[in-house]
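Input/output pair, single chain:
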Amino acid sequence: IEAASYLGAYTYVHIHIHIPPLPPHSLIPDLEDERWRVFLLFEKREERGDTLYAAAGLLSVCEHYAYRESIRPRISQMLVLPPFQRVGLGAHLLQHVYTYYGSDDKVVDITVEDPSENFTRLRDVVDLKNYLGRKALATYTGPFDDDFYESVRTTLRLTRAQARRVYEISWLKRVGSATAGLEDFHHAVKQRLYQPFVKSHGTEARQVAQLNPRERILYDEEKKGHVAQIQQQYDALLEEYRNVINAVDRLA
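Output:
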């Protein structure tokens, strides 16, 4: 349902009047702005011979402009009302948005504005399920390069960062507890996490050569700190990935 429609606008306002306010940093859809779409979820029930509809949730999207007349839909808000939570409706609503935009060649990718931890987990589960449902993606064992990302983007409309994340989760699911496979996985993920700390080899070598003994000690300590930080990030990421895999396995 488009936000500009009368029913969409009326229901959106009705929901926001009867629930606690959303975080102040969230964008509030302008119902007069044609870029906004509000997807509404209803409960349909029969009562005394009448068909009744109750608002169950919503997901709002702003269609941002992208280069060459394309669009980049950005999910702004998602809400499932308390009586309807924990029965899979959030995943159903997100999947509906993917289906709505998935076949539109004008869509570059689908982004998310400031996602919460719960939404990130939900998104990972839905994206991994969709990824594994495409044989060409699920069976791919090569590197995450530009060509492979383009195939993921055009198939699932994922951003590069999210596509890389789902690629890594799929890789972990595929290798399971196999020692050899896990070693390759550990190395690849840690290399990615280390990239923000990396300078070009030649530049770093010249800088290190100019350090005095005390500065070299401080440099070595800083490098050790980076290694510890990366290990902490990796351990947290590994736990997140395994939680997503377990959730997808439960849905199978």
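Strands lie at 36-47, 50-66, 70-80, 111-112. The longest strand covers residues 50-66.
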